[in-house]
Design brief:
The complex is a heterotrimer of chains A (493), B (484) and C (97). By secondary structure, chain A is α/β, with parallel strands linked by helices. In chain A, 39% of the residues lie in helices and 13% in strands. Among the domains of chain A are: 252 residues, Amidase signature (AS) enzymes (Alpha-Beta Complex); 74 residues, no CATH class. Chain C has a domain of 67 residues. The chains are: A alpha/beta (493), B alpha+beta (484), C alpha+beta (97). At the A-B interface, helix 9 and helix 10 of A face loops of B.
């Protein structure tokens, strides 16, 4: 039998329905793989017992021809989604012992479709970071290694780095992520998998621990475009428990895959070619443009003039929103509590002990920025620039159907390298993914090339609002053209 | 007319008052969650994960809460804003689970309203209302049940409040009291708030400043926790006097928040915090713009009940009441309803007199409001009817009224049972008159000698003999004739 | 814009984060450098630009909830997650008004 953990969801679904193996066997194969890959620290909480229990029920439903879209498929759930009866941490000590008695809408949809929970994947604390290195439960390792360097541990990207590493290493067949300023796309690029940040409002945010509410969006991560489309069909949809959820029907994204791009215009934003960018990235991008041309698309250069302000705008808005969103972690009703003589002491002691450096830093910044005397200069200003960034995209989309950019200016680095990066590089790391977050646009990363040091690189497709089908189609064309088959270094037993 | 002033040691001072009135909106469920908004559940039972600020929870707005606020906005002649938005007011407190209150700071749902109040001297004063915004109530902190501990009950957390903010246009304690009374009447007419200040479903913060006539506004001080109409008037008065004393003693008045102590009749400064409070208002990213559908606003406008001012005018036109009486009767929706029920087919002016006189005196003495009246509107109407058709005299009616209160019977039954029907039979009255004249020859000759006042004495004698039932008109006429 | 120590203390208080005295200077510098960084937004002309809170269309139909009681009655669940609770109440140190 081929290694079950190497199958795509589409293949596994077919095999399950045809009785080639059972959901229980599929879950067991993944549990075994998880055992071997403990050092990756991809999961904060592994749920093998629950997985087997869920798989058993899946087998029942498969037997009774009542299989859902994800029936029996092992899923990794980013530990930012509240899961009923399963420890939910946001990778923060402040949620110590927090076992919700409620379920997030998106995870609920996944269980209803037959998904099997393998565990809660690691992330940066409260999704604040791009390396999966800031969490209370430690760093996650990227399963990929540089060519000829098996020692250097690389980051999987972040904040959905646990999900990306788990999918890439075969510790689940797909996973959920959340993307606030690139948190699905950048780790997808670093780990050589597919990740989609849907249009803001496409997936419900209900039950997902908030970082920056106007930017947070749930999305799927998987090894193929088709698998990603399948997971997206399950995750997306209107939810009357989220006021920012779009009241639109969910298309069959898998039907959008393939075909050609005749009559379509692809925009290449000229601002996404800054100096200091890895030449391998430029090479991949040029190749990607060629693939789309080959598929019949017309290629034009477009300008998104406010791109250089995106990152600052993002940081101001995200810090401000998070300073307020994280006020509820006060020790009174759930999670960690540290004693104090007065109420204020309980607050301050709990929050000091419970939050790590990154959330503390951002809360202070956000609190400062929102101050009465600074609101207009920083927060309001950022909100205005954000509108201009949205307008840049609107203008571009009058001329083009979608945009093609690299996902990241470089390949994965080590945690040490990341900490010592100069400000320009840090800036560049998020520069390509952040603008689409501010504009709420659907954006997808597809692994497209291997760099000269043997690491994956991804291309990003940015679509018009709610045009996920178009994004999926382009992604499927790139996937086919790139023929990306290399797998990460994996411990085989 | 001369403006109200307070006389200080060094001269007269004008008072300027603005009010912030928090009204708990009548709804079944909370503003942003499906937990019950109705009082009376045991602690923390009317609480959802949204109200308690659990991770990942999101607010979804209650349509009826919005409609109720629109209704109130129309009731205060306000501008209903098609677009409004919610903002977060950030601060930590034990009864504020999310660490922020969702409110409307930048773009409130209602702006530019006004109400008219009538002063004791009949003068009408128009008071501008700056805004009404929707916000969440906080939970309740319970102190002292266990030493050194405060208990938190979140049943009220997330219940809908409307905050009604006036312009600083009230000029006296009386204006402030009148405004709150008028506003309370309106929200009760509309059914948007029960107006119950004792239970805290309507709460006032009072902004007071004083200045010399002709000068600009003085420093404004906010007095919190003022929870009855009487307290509103008292708080304005004592805070204005405190400020005047301060100014006259050469002490500064600082912009601050003070608490009203209704026992000591004083305001006192709240414990100052080490750091300035900064609420860091910003638009709530969990909620999109609140867009009011035109047809929703139109539907509410079309179903507005008659409000006090319109009702007052109708009472004057339709029932020929005086402005004063009409104003008293419409001040509470229930009183107006009582009046209209009782006035049906009866002399409306007399009904009004009975309500504003005997009935109010009775209710006051028993500490009841009109909905608890021991005498129903129908029975009061019947009583006035019995006077009108000469079945009983006005004097007997007072007795019947007293019996009605105790026995809860209709006046007809009481008159029948107790034989109180007025005697209009001239023969019967004449017989009694003759008896009295025969028994008192000396009084008769005194009367005839010019002592006219004795007529009253004769009336009294006959009335006593008939147990008060003789028709007073007939009796008077016959006596005069008999005594020549 | 220089950030003074008192401002850092106020911000820390507002955020209920205990910043040790030894870190105040560091945080002040951090806030300063952020502001410096944010200064470059001032280059952008936003005179006639409306601030954007949500990318969602203003005319997107609003999601309203019907005024029905659909939640509540979960006191035991709520209390089971609270470290300090008594008799169905959340518990905090005595708050002096």
């Amino acid at each position: 039998m081929t290694d079950l953990v190497d199958l795509t969801i589409a293949e596994a679904r077919k095999a399950l329905d045809e009785g080639e193996f059972t959901a229980t066997e599929l879950a067991e194969a993944h549990i075994k793989e998880m055992e071997k890959a403990k050092h990756l620290n991809a999961y904060i909480t592994e749920t093998p017992d629950l997985a087997l229990e869920m798989a058993k029920k899946s087998d029942e439903r498969i037997k009774n021809k009542k299989a859902g879209l994800l029936e029996g498929i092992p899923v990794g759930m980013k530990d930012l989604y509240c899961t009923k009866g399963v420890l939910t941490t946001a990778a923060s000590h402040i949620l110590d012992g927090f076992v919700p008695f409620y379920e997030s809408t998106v995870s609920e949809k996944i269980w209803n479709a037959g998904g099997v929970l393998m565990g809660k994947t690691n992330l940066d604390e409260f999704a604040m970071g791009s390396g999966t290195i800031t969490g209370y439960y430690g760093c996650t390792e990227n399963p990929w290694k540089r060519t000829g360097d098996n020692k250097t541990v690389l980051v999987p990207g972040g904040s959905s780095g646990g999900s990306a590493a788990a999918v890439s290493a075969g510790l689940c067949m797909c996973a959920t992520g959340t993307d606030t300023g690139g948190s699905i796309r950048q780790p997808a690029s670093f780990c050589g998998i597919v990740g989609l940040k849907p249009t803001y409002g496409r997936c419900s945010r209900y039950g997902i621990i908030a970082f920056a509410s106007s930017l947070d969006q749930a999305g799927p991560m998987a090894r193929t475009v088709e698998d990603t489309a399948l997971l997206m069909e399950v995750m997306a949809g209107f939810d009357d428990k989220d006021s920012t959820s779009a009241q639109l029907a969910v298309p069959n994204y898998r039907k959008a895959l393939g075909g050609d791009l005749k009559g379509k215009v692809v925009g290449i934003p000229k601002e996404y070619r800054p100096s200091g960018i890895n030449p391998d990235v430029i090479k991949m991008w040029d190749e990607g443009i060629r693939w789309l041309k080959d598929a019949g698309a017309e290629v034009v250069e477009v300008s998104l003039p406010h791109t250089e302000y995106a990152l600052t705008t993002y940081h101001v808005i995200a810090s401000a929103e998070c300073s307020s969103n994280l006020a509820r972690y006060d020790g009174i009703r759930f999670g960690l509590r540290k004693d104090g003589k007065t109420l204020d002491e309980v607050y301050a002691n709990t929050r000091m002990e419970g939050f790590g450096n990154e959330p503390r830093r951002r809360i202070l910044i956000g609190t400062y920025i929102l101050g009465e005397s600074r609101y207009n200069d920083y927060f309001l200003k950022a909100q205005k620039v954000r509108r201009l960034i949205v307008k840049d995209f609107d203008d571009a989309f009058k001329k083009v159907d979608f945009l093609l950019t690299p996902a990241a200016p470089s390949t994965a680095v080590s945690a040490e390298e990341m900490k010592n990066q100069d400000p320009i590089t840090v800036f560049l790391n998020d520069a390509f993914v952040c603008p689409a977050s501010l504009a709420g646009l659907p954006a997808m990363v597809v692994p497209s090339a291997i760099s000269s040091d043997g690491l994956p690189l991804g291309l990003q497709i940015i679509g018009k609002p709610f045009a996920e089908e178009q994004v999926f189609q382009v992604a499927s064309i790139i996937e086919k053209a790139a023929n990306f088959t290399k797998q990460p270094h994996r411990v085989r037993g | 007319m001369a403006r109200y002033t307070i006389e200080g040691r060094t001269g007269a001072w004008e008072v300027v008052v603005g009010l912030e009135v928090h009204c708990q909106v009548i709804t079944k469920s909370k503003l942003f969650s499906g937990a019950s908004a109705v009082f009376g559940d045991s602690q923390n039972c009317s609480v959802s994960t949204i109200d308690a600020g659990y991770p990942g929870m999101l607010p979804v707005i209650n349509q009826y809460a919005v409609e109720q606020t629109v209704r109130t906005g129309l009731g205060i002649n306000g501008k209903i804003n098609k677009y409004s938005a919610f903002d977060r007011k950030n601060y930590f407190y034990a009864d504020l689970p999310t660490g922020y209150q969702i409110s409307q700071f930048f773009h409130p749902i209602v702006t530019d309203g006004w109400l008219e109040v009538t002063r004791e001297n009949g003068e009408v004063k128009k008071i501008g209302i700056e805004r009404i915004h929707i916000e969440q109530d906080a939970g309740k902190s319970i102190h002292g049940q266990v030493k050194g501990k405060t208990f938190i009950d979140l049943n009220r957390a997330g219940v809908t409040l409307m905050e009604i903010v006036t312009k600083p246009e009230m000029e006296s304690p009386e204006d402030a009291g009148n405004f709150v009374r008028k506003l309370r009447a309106i929200v009760r007419y509309l059914g948007t708030c029960d107006g119950n200040m004792d239970e805290g479903s309507m709460r006032c913060d009072v902004n007071v400043s004083v200045n010399r006539p002709g000068d600009g506004f003085g420093t404004r001080v906010e007095v919190k926790n003022v929870n009855s109409i009487r307290f509103v008037k008292e708080a304005v008065e004592v805070e204005a006097r405190r400020q005047i004393d301060a100014y006259e003693s050469g002490e500064p008045v600082t912009q601050e928040t003070r608490l009203f102590d209704s026992d000591k009749l004083e305001t006192r400064a709240m414990r100052s915090k080490e750091f300035a409070i900064d609420y860091r208002y910003f638009p709530d990213p969990d909620l999109v713009t609140l867009v009011l559908a035109d047809d929703m606003v139109a539907r509410i406008r079309d179903t507005m009940p008659e409000l006090p001012d319109a009702k007052k005018q109708r009472f004057i036109d339709e029932y020929k009441l005086t402005e004063y009486d009409a104003r008293q009767l419409v001040s509470e929706k229930e009183v107006a309803e009582y009046f209209e029920t009782a006035a049906k087919g009866n002399d409306a002016k007399k009904v009004a007199n009975w309500i504003l006189g005997d009935l109010f005196a009775l209710l006051n003495s028993e500490g009841k409001d009109i909905t608890e009246s021991p005498i129903s509107a129908e029975n009061l109407g019947k009583l006035v009817g019995l006077i009108g058709n000469n079945t009983i005299s006005g004097k007997i009616a007072k007795d019947v009224f007293a019996i009605m209160e105790k026995k809860k019977k209709s006046p007809e039954v009481i008159v029948e049972e107790q034989g109180l029907k007025q005697v209009s039979d001239t023969g019967a009255i004449e017989a009694e008159i003759d008896k009295v004249i025969a028994a008192n020859p000396d009084k008769v000759s005194e009367y005839k000698g010019g002592k006219d006042k004795l007529l009253g004495w004769f009336v009294g004698q006959v009335m006593a003999a008939t147990k008060g039932k003789a028709n007073p008109g007939i009796l008077n006429e016959m006596l005069k004739k008999k005594l020549g | 814009m220089p950030v003074d120590i008192n401002t850092v203390k106020q911000v820390a208080y507002l955020a209920r984060l205990k910043v040790p005295d030894s870190d105040l200077e560091k945080v002040a510098k951090e806030l300063e450098s952020l502001c410096q960084w944010a200064e470059h937004l001032k280059e952008v002309d936003t005179e006639f630009v409306e601030p954007l809170t949500s990318v969602l269309d203003k005319d997107m139909p609003l999601i309203y909830r019907d005024d029905k009681v659909t939640e509540g009655g979960i006191r035991d669940e709520l209390m089971s997650l609270a470290t300090e609770n008594e008799d169905g109440y959340y518990e905090v140190p005595q708050v002096v008004e």
